[in-house]
Design brief:
By secondary structure, the chain is an alpha/beta fold. It has one domain. It has four helices and four strands, in the order ββαααββα. Strands 1-3-2-4 form a four-stranded parallel β-sheet, with helices on one face. Helix 2 runs antiparallel to helix 3 and helix 3 crosses helix 4. The radius of gyration is 26 Å and the shape is elongated.
């Protein structure tokens, strides 16, 4: 009777990997149980580190532009607050309109930046994850594992399974070498999509003796 030999649970929240190709598994071997931190395994392969570093480099110019926009917004906010008693009504209206336009543009650019970064990171994780998943599946078949689980730290484990994370990083690097890359000393999670802090709302304080426009 043929039994399922290999099951990998909860690869990553971002991953939607094709499982149909591995629906049929060979007979169970020794029934060993293993765990793997897929997120750390993907991030610490040479290819993973290069992919995430390339993404960070790609989005750096847009991140710097957003930071410049933030500085301009803050400068206008400071001007309106500090010079409220001396600015004319027309000048206050002009600066307020300018500030609102900058804030709208910043919000739009920030949302595009974060959406693009998340999409490209997800694509990279999915691309790398598919190859890692295949290696883990083959390793489980070849080494008699009945079950391989994602090692969630919040889930208590009352037995001593075999941790395959470092082994799968080593096997991935051997299967998919990256020229000039060296393995990391300690695991690390994938770099998050770059994010910026949205500026606080515009402050348009006006002198008490002037009517509000």
């Amino acid at each position: 009777m043929r039994n399922r030999v290999f099951t990998l649970i909860a690869l990553l929240g971002l991953l939607m990997l094709p499982l149909r190709a591995w629906a049929q598994a060979p007979p169970a071997g020794t029934g060993k149980i293993g765990v793997i931190n897929i997120q750390a395994a993907i991030a610490n392969t040479a290819e993973g580190k290069k992919a995430f570093a390339d993404l960070q480099k790609k989005f750096e110019p847009r991140q710097r532009d957003l930071q410049q926009q933030q500085q301009e917004i803050q400068a206008l906010q400071d001007q309106l607050q500090k010079q409220a008693a001396t600015l004319s009504d027309d000048e206050q209206r002009r600066l307020t309109r300018d500030l609102e336009e900058k804030q709208k543009r910043f919000k739009r650019n920030q949302e595009d930046f974060q959406a693009d970064g998340q999409q490209e990171q997800q694509e990279a994780v999915q691309r790398l994850g598919q190859k890692m998943y295949r290696l883990v599946f083959e390793y489980g078949q070849q080494n008699g594992f009945a079950l391989i689980l994602e090692s969630y730290p919040q889930l208590p484990i009352y037995y001593a399974p075999v941790d395959l994370t470092d082994e799968m990083i080593r096997r991935y690097d051997a299967m998919y070498p990256v020229e000039g890359a060296t393995p990391a000393a300690t695991p690390a999670a994938p770099a998050a999509a770059p994010a910026t802090t949205a500026p606080k709302p515009a402050a348009t304080t006006k002198p008490a003796d002037k009517p509000k426009q």
